[in-house]
């Protein structure tokens, strides 16, 4: 082979190698571009999903307000709060002379404000010192309890929370306790939720468990989920002193509110 032919063949071979390198670079460039395009597409899709989520969340949050502005019915949970005792019935009398009926009503009024601030419709069985009976009733206690049950059945709320205070012959006994009707699964769930909230309070002197009951008049005669919340013992000096303070009543109301919202939502 002549020297000229050899140079020509070498040049041709180098040319083809250059073509292959350029082609390879082009393919690599195309793959890189495709990869970039794919990442951009995924990023755009992700951002679109985020924006859709934000939009849906905003619509969900504003749904109640928007419905109200448009005059549409607004679905809000309904809760009846029952302040135990009242009028001629003071309930338990504490070692510090505190009246149960007054402590119950004070906690209920605070709890009502917290719940209403969280879009819950609240009905009270009483909002004054008066009991639910007529002065002419021969048995005011029975009349009072019967009318509470009638009122609750008329309203048909999602749940009922009846606030009470406890008492025992031994002054060392303390701690909040929630009671529910023995065969009510929803009542048990509500009671356990509220009990957990009260047990977690730093001020809780003794942690207790929610307890089933088949004797209490309200539990027997109310069809919707109902609990009786005994938020403390007026027979225990330390607890009785706390129960008459605004600070402790506010704390109890707040924890009960959080437990109710947890159960409802």
List the topology elements.
Elements: H1 3-69, E1 78-83, H2 100-116, E2 121-124, H3 140-155, E3 159-166, E4 177-181, H4 185-199, E5 211-213, H5 217-221, E6 226-233, H6 237-243, H7 246-264
Parallel strand pairs: 1-2, 1-3, 3-6, 4-5
Antiparallel strand pairs: 4-6
Helix pairs in contact: 2-7, 4-7
The assigned CATH architecture of the largest domain is 3-Layer(aba) Sandwich
Task: Give the number of DSSP strands.
Answer: 6
Could you name the CATH class of the largest domain?
Answer: Alpha Beta
CATH topology term of the largest domain: Aminopeptidase
Structure, briefly:
With 265 residues, the protein is of the alpha/beta class. The protein has helices at 3-69, 100-116, 140-155, 185-199, 217-221, 237-243, 246-264, and strands at residues 78-83, 121-124, 159-166, 177-181, 211-213, 226-233. A 6-stranded mixed sheet has the order 2-1-3-6-4-5, with helices on both faces.
């Amino acid at each position: 082979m002549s020297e000229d032919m050899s140079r020509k063949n070498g040049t041709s071979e180098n040319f083809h190698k250059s073509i292959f390198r350029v082609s390879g670079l082009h393919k690599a460039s195309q793959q890189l571009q495709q990869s970039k395009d794919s990442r951009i597409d995924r990023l755009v899709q992700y951002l679109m999903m985020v924006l859709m989520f934000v939009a849906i969340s905003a619509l969900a949050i504003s749904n109640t307000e928007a419905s109200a502005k448009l005059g549409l019915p607004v679905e809000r949970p309904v809760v009846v709060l029952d302040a135990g005792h009242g009028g001629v019935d003071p309930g338990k009398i504490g070692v510090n002379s505190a009246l149960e009926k007054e402590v119950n009503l004070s906690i209920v009024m605070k709890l009502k404000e917290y719940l209403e601030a969280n879009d819950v419709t609240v009905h009270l069985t009483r909002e004054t010192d008066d009991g639910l009976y007529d002065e002419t009733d021969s048995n005011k206690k029975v009349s009072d309890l019967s009318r509470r049950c009638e009122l609750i059945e008329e309203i048909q709320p999602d749940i009922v929370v009846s606030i009470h205070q406890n008492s025992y012959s031994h002054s060392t006994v303390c701690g909040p306790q929630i009671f529910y009707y023995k065969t009510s699964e929803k009542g048990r769930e509500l009671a356990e939720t509220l009990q957990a909230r009260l047990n977690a309070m730093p001020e809780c002197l003794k942690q207790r468990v929610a307890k089933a009951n088949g004797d209490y008049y309200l539990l027997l005669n109310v069809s919707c989920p109902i609990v009786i919340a005994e938020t403390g013992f007026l027979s225990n000096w330390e607890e009785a002193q706390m129960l008459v303070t605004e600070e402790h009543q506010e704390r109890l109301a707040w924890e009960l509110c959080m437990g109710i919202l947890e159960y409802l939502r």
